[in-house]
Design goal:
binds glutathione; globular; 10 helices; single chain
Length: 275
């Protein structure tokens, strides 16, 4: 008798588990299947939700959307937080093709839409532009990530985004691990900040009184440099980086405001808190 009752209970539990699993899979599938097919000849930009004081907390999302605006390419935002096949954001879909990575997206779109934002610049200027993009995306980027996830004790930006303690803890662990493997994480906070402020100084010295990175007209690399600098200007409150771009290297702030005003008239509608 006891044996029969025991197997009945097991059967109920097993049925319950299977039902809940099927239900969860069904909900997940229903959620992930697009409500409507993507329009043809329109770039679908997969990205995260709104940022706090800038339209995205991801420099790469801000870069790619700025590029789409600068190039007048028709696009639609999908704030679905879906990651690319490489596990990163942003990525695009265009007429059924998927392209991960902001830089590969730009190369793909340049070819598809016959765009060359660098056409006015010499090979040597383009090379300098590329080097500054790398400085921003491969160096200042780590400072931004570590500041947000580790150095800022209050996790200000993540808290304002409403991220729970556990998620913030996971992000902190992830940032520390990847920075360690990259190598930059072997340095102290003071050293990482010193490196980043040196990068900001180099950018400030190079931009000087110019309106954009290479001169009076924007180039392709402005999108990436803006994507990174906008994070420092607006989304790293209380950091040394923010102080540097607002005080000592204030031309960087002016540079960001110039690009924001030119390409982002809807900025305030795209942020959680206007500044
Ligand atoms: N090289 C990539 C970098 C993209 C990237 O690192 N995105 C971050 C957000 S800023 C991301 O998706 N991180 C998630 C993760 O690493 O798991 C690009 O240019 O798109």
């Amino acid at each position: 008798m006891a044996e029969t009752t025991g197997s009945c209970v097991s059967l109920y539990i097993a049925t319950g588990v299977v039902t809940v699993t099927v239900l969860l899979l069904y909900i997940r599938r229903a959620k992930s299947s697009p409500a409507e097919p993507h329009p043809r000849d329109t770039v679908m930009l997969h990205q995260l939700g709104k940022g706090v004081h800038a339209p995205s907390i991801s420099p790469f999302v801000l870069k790619l959307e700025t590029y789409l605006r600068m190039s007048n390419i028709p696009y639609k935002n999908l704030f679905d937080k879906k990651m690319s096949s490489k596990g990163k954001t942003p990525w695009i879909e265009y007429n059924g093709e998927q392209v991960p990575d902001s830089e590969f997206c730009i190369e793909y779109l340049n070819a598809k839409f016959n765009v060359d934002l660098n056409s006015k610049f010499s090979q040597s200027d383009r090379a300098i532009g590329r080097a500054f993009r790398k400085l921003a995306e491969e160096d200042v980027y780590w400072y931004i990530g570590l500041s947000r996830c580790v150095y800022d004790r209050h996790r200000t930006i993540f808290s304002r985004l409403g991220l729970r303690w556990l998620i913030r803890k996971i992000l902190e662990r992830k940032a520390l691990t990847s920075a360690w493997h990259h190598g930059i994480g072997r340095h102290s906070e003071t050293e990482v900040t010193h490196i980043a402020v040196g990068d900001l100084k180099a950018l400030s010295d190079f931009i000087g009184d110019k309106r954009f990175l290479l001169g009076d007209t924007p180039c392709q690399e402005d999108c990436a440099v803006f994507g990174i600098l906008a994070q420092v200007v607006w989304q790293m409150p209380g950091s040394d980086g923010e102080r540097a771009v607002n005080e000592k290297y204030a031309n960087l702030r002016r540079y960001c405001v110039r690009i924001k005003d030119k390409y982002w008239p809807d900025w305030d509608d795209r942020v959680l808190e206007s500044v």
